[in-house]
Amino acid sequence: MYRKGEVTYQALPLPDHVARDDATAAAAAFLAYMRKRHSVRQYSAREVPEAVIASCIAAAGTAPSGANHQPWHFVAISDPAMKAQIREGAEEEERAFYSGGAGDEWLAALEPIGTGVSKPHLTDAPWLIVVFAQRYGITDDGDRYKNYYVPESVGIATGFLIAALHHAGLVCLEHTPNPMKFLNDLCQRPAHEKPVMILPVGYPAADATVPAVAKRKKPLAQIMSVFR
Fold it and tell me: Is 147 exposed, middle or buried (0-12, 13-18, 19+ CB in 10 A)?
């Protein structure tokens, strides 16, 4: 975390480490575990305690970041009125997107996913988590400082958050209407923060489905190169 005037390096002995006797088995088990993660659009009305959401966001906050500036902020929303406003704003932008804002190629790419203008998950899910990226930071006395590798850092933290939600037995959906400027005012966030994602969060509905195409992942040979 950035603190004005702290410009010296101090080494700290490694405080914690997860030791594994069999890394191969552990890695394979984690792969199998993460293959059970799905992006879900249908949510149960079952409540999710705020403490669960807080722990998952705290886990996201442990992510590495450029210069350790941690250029993110997460807004957790369970208020039905706020969720309704977010859905209204998101659907307005989606109408513009689907009526000409997106090109034919983009719309064709989305066809197998089954998306459209209507976003009931934004009001059905018990929680929405809005992810903000901080373009720059501001000290307690009002001075501006530069943040580094902001998209990369926020992307890593969001990945941590999604994994934490999965670990808690919850599901979410990576919702990215663009632009999302209405979220700053609604979530009372400053202008130097950019909303980048909305995550509806909750338990899956009993009849929840996922697009068949979502289960088609690239084989390892297409996403990994090895030089020995």
Answer: buried
Task: Decide: 157 and 60 in contact? Cβ < 8 Å.
Answer: yes
Q: Are the CB atoms for 147 and 137 separated by under 8 Å? A: yes
* Alpha-carbon span 199 to 159, nearest angstrom: 12
Domain map of the chain by residue range?
49-205
DSSP-derived 3-state class of residue 182: helix
The CATH architecture of the domain made up of 49-205 is 3-Layer(aba) Sandwich (3.40)
DSSP strands (E only) in 78-220: 127-134, 136-138, 144-146, 171-172, 193-202
Write the Ramachandran bin of 73: left for phi over 0, alpha for psi from -120 to 50, otherwise beta: beta
| 193 phi and psi angles, rounded to 5 deg | -105, 135
pTM: 0.94
The predicted structure's pLDDT at residue 105: 86
The 10s digit of each residue's pLDDT in 109-132 is: 888 888 888 999 999 999 999 999
